[in-house]
UniProtKB/TrEMBL annotation:
The keyword Zinc-finger does not apply. This is T9SS type A sorting domain-containing protein. The keyword Endoplasmic reticulum does not apply. It holds the Pfam family Por_Secre_tail.
Length: 334
């Protein structure tokens, strides 16, 4: 017996040509008791424990997900926001939605926000008499759900993606379980997690049913936090982003500012100053009020800056290294 109680809810709202059903829940939420089934236009979810579905929606489209050698069936469900779910998921289908997929080989497959589909693992149960496929799952990050044959390969699936600190560099390592028409991985870096720049590109194997490992070495990380993501590009130009990874790199340069607050002379002690390109001071308005290049900086010594004529306020000390990374600190003038 699959459920103690079955609740069937179907809301039809056509707002796009390929959207055929929608179930919307506001902030108040929609609670499902364990072993209670919610069915929305052919998609049934039966949680094994208490499940709350709030500020979200379920819709489905008839446009299949591209794949190799076959696409998915012509029934793809989308969540308004990704969910985590443990229990049974069942998808009913019509035979005219099979899209050249064999009924006996149908498997449940899901993707997260980045559109990377989990390759089917032959764990689904197919009922070709009643036209449905079901599977007991324990999944996180569910944004899309559909059915495809167990031998099909949907877009690149990342198994893992790591950012590891190694001496003066950060090593990025990732692997894929399957690839179909993949072209390359674009490695992107950010110092704040918002503004991104491309720092490298790694060619993909294009077609594979095996696990493939990749790596990229960032030789000039920023002092402090470094954020990384992959832009996964297919041969047809479509792309998806990986999850963001963060690694903290501590510069070998030691910088000490004193006294703080300062009234007349500010001392800056640098250890490893041969790697310093420049020292700059910026006021609260973002205006540069002091700058000294490497040629004028004493190696492994103390540099003194006259602050007597500086107005009272907060200042930022910026030490730029030759590799382009920065070390900063704030001081106040009495």
């Amino acid at each position: 017996m699959r459920a103690k109680c079955i609740t069937i809810l179907t809301f039809v709202l056509s707002f796009q040509l390929d959207v055929q059903a929608q179930f919307t829940v506001n902030d108040n939420g929609f609670f499902l008791a364990p072993e209670t089934t919610l069915t929305v236009s052919g998609l049934s979810i039966t949680p094994s424990g208490p499940f709350s579905f709030s500020n979200n929606e379920i819709s489905y489209a008839t446009k299949p997900v591209s794949g190799n050698p076959n696409e998915s069936i012509k029934r793809v469900y989308a969540m308004g926001n990704p969910i985590a779910f443990k229990g049974n998921i069942l998808i009913s289908y019509y035979e005219n939605e099979l899209n050249m997929n064999s009924e006996n080989l149908l498997q449940l497959t899901k993707a997260g926000l980045n559109g990377e589909f989990l390759v089917p693992t032959n764990k689904s149960v197919v009922n070709s008499q009643e036209n449905f496929v079901s599977e007991d799952v324990d999944w996180t990050n569910i944004q899309y759900l559909t059915l495809t044959n167990s031998g099909n390969i949907l877009p690149v699936t990342l198994i893992d993606f790591e950012a590891l600190v190694r001496e003066n560099e950060i090593v990025l390592a990732w692997s894929t379980s399957h690839e179909s028409n993949s072209d390359f991985f674009e490695v992107q870096h950010s110092a704040n997690g918002k503004e991104w720049q491309t720092i490298g590109r790694v060619a993909a194997v294009q077609q594979s049913n095996e696990v493939n490992g990749y790596a990229y070495v960032h030789k000039s990380p920023s002092a402090g936090s470094n954020f990384y993501r992959l832009r996964i590009v297919d041969q047809d130009g479509t792309f998806a982003f990986s999850r963001i990874r963060n690694a903290t790199w501590k510069s070998q340069l030691s910088v000490v500012f004193f006294p703080n607050p300062v009234s007349d002379w500010l001392s800056i002690e640098l250890e490893g100053s041969s790697s310093v390109r420049s020292i700059a001071i910026v006021n609260a308005k973002g205006q540069s009020v002091y700058h000294k290049s490497n040629s004028a900086i004493g190696h492994n010594s103390e540099n003194r800056i006259d602050f007597k004529n500086f107005p009272s306020g907060i200042y930022t000390i910026i030490v730029m290294l030759k590799d382009g990374s920065l070390s900063t600190g704030k001081i106040s003038k009495k």
